[in-house]
Design goal:
This protein is α/β, with parallel strands linked by helices and about 350 residues long. It folds into two domains: about 140 residues, Rossmann fold (3-Layer(aba) Sandwich); about 150 residues, Rossmann fold. The protein has eleven helices and six strands. The strands form two sheets. Strands 4-3-5-6 form a four-stranded parallel sheet, sandwiched between helices. A two-stranded parallel ribbon has the order 1-2. The two termini are about 35 Å apart. About 40% of the residues are buried. The structure holds coproporphyrin III (HT9) and fe (ii) ion (FE2). The site of coproporphyrin III has 24 residues, from helix 1, helix 2, helix 5 and helix 10.
């Protein structure tokens, strides 16, 4: 509960909702998997830094639990560092996935003399897509091993639902939360089709659905919910699905509870074959992509114009966000870093 209160501070989420969410954590030992995921990612990044001869140390700070970002930045300053480059564990534009991190960097950095930059929004980097393509192929293989026909499975891409006004605000200065997810989903589908020879899109848009809605029932949030879509798919004659959590970079609680527990149960009730594709986690292509993004940002800071890898037709995320990027609709004047 103290962690959940930190996450939702000032956002009017009632305690009853937090108690329900707390029960999800109790199913997994009463703690989030996220710190272990961060430790594993940092170890993989350290190895990739070492392999490339980069001697820059990596620090780790959380927004809502220990180790807190404020303490981490104090420590970095005390250790004699002057410049910090933030790698956020969130890949898309939207208030919750972009500006909120930049606000927290402002708050945590503001009594230090550190200068703080951030890598660009990166979901449409080819390395992130490669990780999802491999994960979908493994999911299809799993369905095959369980006696389903992988060629007739449906790919269901899933991300965190957000309030509709937040989604609209994300589309002012970028193509927006939904559009970024569609670009990633379409490219994953295209590459899976190229690798397997099966046209999983069949001329349709990728199936993009949402999980983890919270907020009052009357408020509009992005839909459809994954469970509703599974029911519709079963009714349409789908026999098996690969659920692809492109909205998350690792197996957070939303993935292990909302997908692996809840959506998997819905699929079981419907008699649908169900495979959950892995998140990017420490996939080598993803780890290499993050280090490429670090090197890219450093080159930009030196005044160079590095090549910026992106999937075909997608938007290159901002390293310095426009001032109206992913607006905070509740507190529009709250200061944030990495913007102009
Ligand atoms: C877009 C997005 C991401 C993905 C981008 C990113 O990764 O940043 C994300 C990640 C995460 N969200 C997390 C946890 C929670 N998010 C909540 C609530 C909310 N999330 C929202 C959005 C997002 N959230 C929103 C619009 C709310 C409503 C309240 C508010 O506007 O603040 C609540 C309150 C209870 C509830 O309402 O469910 C909890 C506990 C954890 C940790 C999980 C773990 O412990 O493994 C992670 C990684
Ligand atoms: Fe969240």
């Amino acid at each position: 509960m103290p962690f959940l209160r930190n996450v939702t501070r000032g956002r009017g989420i009632p305690d009853e909702r937090l108690e329900v969410v707390g029960e999800h954590y109790y199913l997994f030992g009463g703690r989030s998997p996220i710190n272990d995921q961060c430790r594993a990612l940092i170890a993989a990044l350290e190895k990739e830094f070492a392999d490339r001869g980069l001697e820059t140390p990596i620090y780790w700070g959380n927004r809502n639990w220990e180790p807190y970002l404020t303490d981490t930045l104090q420590q970095a300053g005390a250790d004699g560092h002057r410049r910090v480059l933030a790698i956020t564990t969130s890949a898309y534009p939207s208030y919750s996935s972009c500006r909120q991190y930049r606000e927290n960097l402002y708050d945590a950095g503001h009594d230090t003399s550190l200068s703080i930059d951030r890598i660009r929004q990166y979901a449409d980097h080819p390395g992130f897509v490669t990780a999802s393509v491999d994960a979908v192929r493994a999911g299809l293989a799993q369905l095959g091993a369980e006696g389903h026909d992988p060629a007739s499975a449906r790919l269901v891409y899933v991300t965190h639902s957000i309030p509709s006004p937040m989604a609209e605000a994300s589309a002012r200065a970028t193509r927006g939360y939904e559009s970024w997810h569609r670009a990633v989903a379409d490219e994953v589908t295209r590459q899976v089709a190229a690798a397997t020879g099966v046209d999983y899109a069949g001329g349709h848009d990728s199936d993009l659905v949402y999980c983890s809605r919270s907020g009052a029932p009357g408020q509009p949030w992005l839909e459809p919910d994954i469970n509703d879509r599974l029911r519709e798919s079963a009714a349409d004659g789908t026999k098996a699905v690969v659920v692809v959590p492109i909205g998350f970079i690792s197996d957070h609680m939303e993935v292990i509870y909302d997908l692996d527990t809840e959506a998997a149960e819905t699929a079981r009730e419907l008699g649908l074959g169900f495979a959950r594709a892995a998140t990017a986690g420490t996939h080598p292509a993803f780890v290499a992509a993050l280090v490429d993004l670090v090197e890219e940002r450093a080159a930009i800071a030196r005044g160079e114009q590095p090549e910026q890898a992106v999937i075909p037709g997608a938007e290159i995320g901002a390293v310095v966000c426009p001032v109206d990027c992913c607006l905070n609709l509740r507190q529009p004047d709250r200061p944030a870093l990495c913007q102009r």
